[in-house]
Amino acid sequence: MSRFWSEIVHQLTPYVPGEQPKVSNLIKLNTNENPYGPSPKVLKALASEASDSLRLYPDPNAEALKSAIADYYSVNTKQVFVGNGSDEVLAHGFMGLLKQSAPLLFPDITYSFYPVYCGLYGVESTTVPLSENFEINLAEYNQPNGGIIFPNPNAPTGKVLPLADIETLLKSNTDSVVVVDEAYIDFGGESAIALVDKYPNLLVIQTFSKSRSLAGLRVGFAVGHADLIEGLERVKNSFNSYPLDRFAVSGAVAALEDESYFQQTCSAIIQTRESLIGELEALGFEIIPSAANFVFVQHKERDAAELAAQLREKAIIVRHFKQDRIQNFIRITIGTNDECQSLVTALQEICG
Asked: CA-to-CA distance for 228 and 203, rounded, in angstroms?
């Protein structure tokens, strides 16, 4: 620890992202990246940006991308906010909307960046336990709060809340902001963006990293009432006026324009997921129902940490969590059919 650190730095417990190994020839099923590359239209758009124009700053408001998102989801551009990955959008949400006098509520098993942001921005929080079946219990959120946030589908469990349940939650929490983090929504859920015109306290956050295959470009966005978006813009313009570069804007717009490629790759991942679930169940695994591009599983007899280590010895990386209640689970990203078959073959050898 440095004596030159600010006081808050001593108190932080930083987020630890999934491993990005430098070793080649690994089957990487640990960070929920899309196994399929971006649309050819994206690559063409990126190539066109590699020009003398890079000497100029990008549009600070990324209007081209906001317009494309607004058109895609049938909302107004004033209802759209964009940022450098959904994590940055979330960060601005914590600072601009969720730092209130009452505590923020989120599940005890969820995206582990939430408590990190609470520590960074001084947001008081209360965790709400998931049920024994790892479901969000809506009744438990009927308590005083300064905001509610949760992923849908949840991470790392993959369980999804129906849109009707989200609307029930909104109806019972009209005086605080409800943030629905939809990083994985395109793999099996129904987006709450359909509700933003009806509920002025709803903010929906999505990313281009997963279903759009653009994790390397860092593009995220939020959709909500114009008043919420203005709050995010005020924070953004007090932090970094140019969060998205020319490549990110052009690539993201092109991704939205190639709907057939988007549907094709999402369908392929869903089909592989369902096939993998059957194979894992045959090997003695218990699988939490998933609407995401990953499955959260535990073996009836094998230790999760040992399984992860044994898979690594076979050049396959999965994610093991040490958190209470889920320490015997591993999270497996859905790869290609060939990658998932290699995983099954390795598990057959390990589990006998």
From this structure: 7
